[in-house]
Design brief:
- The complex is a heterodimer of chains A (about 190) and B (about 425).
- Chain A starts with a helix and ends with a helix.
- About 10% of the residues of chain A have low confidence.
- Chain A has eight helices and no strands.
- Chain A has about 190 residues and is an all-alpha fold.
- In chain A, helix 2 packs antiparallel against helix 3.
- Chain B has about 425 residues and is mainly α.
- Chain B has 16 helices and two strands.
- In chain B, strand 1 and strand 2 form a beta hairpin.
- In chain B, helix 6 runs antiparallel to helix 7, helix 7 packs antiparallel against helix 8 and helix 8 runs antiparallel to helix 10.
- The longest helix of chain B is centred in the first third of the chain and has 39 residues.
- Chain B is globular.
- Chain B starts with a helix and ends in a 21-residue tail after the last helix.
- The N terminus of chain B is likely disordered.
- Classes of the chains: A mainly alpha (about 190), B mainly alpha (about 425).
Chain lengths: ~190, ~425
């Protein structure tokens, strides 16, 4: 896929920013700073989603991850009051960590070579994957000419991917109920039955 | 998109020969015109926010039979200017043990999150709004959920117990009431069939009705959670003066404090504007298109005036409630959110969906592409059932859910009714 003009500029800006933020996030010594940098990573990723016209995913990403998950992260960090770790960047775990990372990277490269065999590092767009062009029609207001993302996602969620969606929500529900059960004390159980 | 922007520019601007000869139309459509809109919008909203503080003080004064600020300028109209000047020249204090970077970033996050959301609100017809994106409502939600971070980080970075407690309270409150707001709006979305805010107004203009008559319960839920979401009285626990000094912004002073303050008032404007757009018909007023020709500059200007009038009414309701209702206790606040508003919103969605399908089966609602067509009997059916069926059933259900809620009130003085069961 070839990127042209402003799209290319934006993509490379966002991609480089995301990678830099990710590196800073891992190396930050303060948990809250890490969370803040993780938010930056998520927002830049949402920007990349916007570039490929996946507006709904971008919005949902920020709403769920930044507005929900990370707020809870920061909540927990603040409540347990994590002290700043000592500034020794390399510990004895360094060797083990480095070895694991090396193995992971090796595996990843092997997989990438397999998938990219036909066109290694070529910039041709794969065949058959083409976005349907949304028909311009006079009855539809201008916003729909950009994309009909949300309508499509809604329809898919209730038809084709209904089962996986329901399974995912069931798993989440079980997690929530389990958390509540674990958090309640015996005494409370006795009193309220 | 290009054509739309060219159409949306006012005629005298896009037709004027000076612009067409010298400036590339792309630059005009994508850069100059939106930039003009943004500058105008920012100036208007900042002025509005400044005067909202004055309005709030005046309204509170009238409610308490006082005069309110009347020293600076005629009727005290220059008071916001004096306040702003005072805040600018105050000393900028940073606590010794504060996390300085986060302390500095927090108010900026709050302010940016509040201002970005202004971009997608339909202030008027055609060129009265900046960008009509497909995910409008979702965009507002995601951006305003980032605003919570500003408050939490500000409270944490101050390294003070009052700030931290205020931040904790505020984030818990905003996260829980966000759910209720989202669920309340879904009822309205069923009738507009879109997330794009301008299209929602157009859908209401097509139906010749405001969504509030179909969704009275949802509007009530939205209003209550909106007040809680913006941390205002009677839900202003995060900055309860009697307990927490000033909550999350205790340690902030001068300009940084004013950034938080502007963000808070901008959020109130956004909540009112979204409420107007979804439930009160946005800039649509029955009969407006007969007075002015739709699409003309006068029509757009009058539509902006209509939107502003509706928003100001909702803002007045916000002020009015602040000075009429005492503050909630924290457990009461959470109970109201999770045991009353969220179940009510869920019941509203379910009942509305059932009634909607029944009406569709009876042929009262016909879905025509992206819009709905409702027959005269359909209007009667939908409005009637909203009041006769949805509200009483939800009320009974809430009564059932909260039957034993007092038993769980840990702070109540009377002994717990242990043997009530069996």
């Amino acid at each position: 896929m070839k990127l042209l003009g402003i799209e290319a500029v934006l993509f490379y800006l966002l991609a480089v920013a995301a990678i830099l933020f990710a590196i800073f996030m891992v190396t930050a010594r303060n948990a809250v700073h890490s969370a803040l940098l993780l938010i930056s990573v998520l927002i830049t990723t949402a920007g990349i989603y916007l570039l490929v016209h996946a507006e709904f995913i971008a919005g949902a990403q920020i709403l769920v991850y930044v507005g929900g998950v990370l707020v809870l992260f920061i909540f927990v960090i603040m409540l347990v009051n994590v002290k700043e770790e000592d500034n020794k960047l390399f510990t004895k775990q360094f060797l083990l960590g480095g070895f694991t990372t090396f193995l992971l990277a090796l595996g990843m490269i092997c997989i990438l070579l397999q998938t990219q065999k036909a066109s290694f590092f070529s910039f041709n767009s794969p065949p058959d994957v083409k976005l349907e062009k949304v028909q311009d029609s006079p009855n539809i207001s201008p916003s729909h000419n950009i994309s009909q993302n949300s309508i499509r996602i809604g329809q898919e969620l209730y038809t084709r991917v209904a089962l996986p969606f329901e399974i995912a929500s069931l798993v989440l529900l079980v997690a929530i109920v389990g958390a509540v059960r674990l958090a309640r004390e015996r005494k409370q159980e006795k009193i309220y039955g | 998109m290009l054509n739309y922007l060219a159409l949306s520019a006012p005629k005298w601007l896009s037709d004027s020969p000076i612009l067409h000869n010298r400036i590339d139309p792309d630059v005009l459509d994508y850069f100059l015109w939106p930039l003009t809109q943004i500058v105008v919008l920012l100036v208007v909203v900042l002025t509005l926010v400044a005067y909202l503080t004055l309005a709030e003080r005046k309204v509170s004064a009238w409610i308490q039979a006082r005069l309110g600020p009347n020293r600076v300028g005629p009727l005290g109209l220059l008071q916001p200017l004096a306040d702003g000047l005072k805040l600018l020249i105050k000393e900028d204090l940073i606590p010794l043990n504060a996390d300085k970077i986060v302390f500095a970033i927090a108010p900026i996050i709050s302010l940016v999150a509040a201002f970005v959301a202004l971009a997608v609100i339909p202030w008027g017809a055609a060129w009265g709004m900046i960008s009509n994106i497909d995910i409008g409502l979702l965009f507002i939600f995601s951006v305003s959920s980032v605003g919570v971070l500003g408050i939490i980080l500000g409270g944490w970075a101050s390294n003070s117990k009052y700030s931290l407690l205020g931040a904790l309270r505020s984030s818990a409150q905003m996260v829980s009431y966000e759910v209720a707001i989202g669920l309340a709006l879904i009822g309205g979305l069923m009738f507009t069939k879109t997330l794009a805010l301008q299209d929602m107004v157009l859908a209401q203009a097509r139906l010749h009705i405001w969504i509030i008559v179909f969704q009275p319960l949802a509007f009530l839920i939205y209003l209550i959670s909106g007040i809680a979401e913006t941390n205002r009285a009677p839900f202003d626990l995060p900055e309860a003066e009697s307990e927490l000094v000033a909550g999350f912004h205790t340690e902030y002073s001068g300009f940084r404090f004013s950034l938080f303050f502007i963000a808070e008032y901008t959020n109130i404007v956004i909540v009112s504007a979204v409420g107007v757009t979804v439930f009160l018909g946005g800039w649509y007023l029955p009969g407006l298109s007969y007075i002015f020709e739709p699409g003309s500059a006068l029509f757009v200007l009058s539509s902006i005036a209509v939107f502003a009038a509706k928003t100001l009414v909702l803002l007045y309701v916000f002020f009015w409630l602040r000075w009429s209702v005492p503050r909630y206790r924290y457990d009461q606040l959470m109970e109201l959110g999770w045991k009353w508003l969220i179940p009510a919103a869920l019941a509203n969605i379910l009942l509305t969906a059932i009634l909607f399908v029944i009406a569709q089966q009876l042929g009262l609602i016909v879905s025509n592409g992206n819009f709905l067509e409702i027959t005269k009997l359909g209007y009667v059916f939908l409005i009637g059932t909203a009041f006769i069926i949805t509200i009483p059933i939800t009320w009974i259900m809430l009564g059932q859910i909260n039957q034993r809620s007092r038993d769980f009130n840990l702070y109540e003085a009377k002994p717990l009714p242990m043997n009530r069961k069996k």
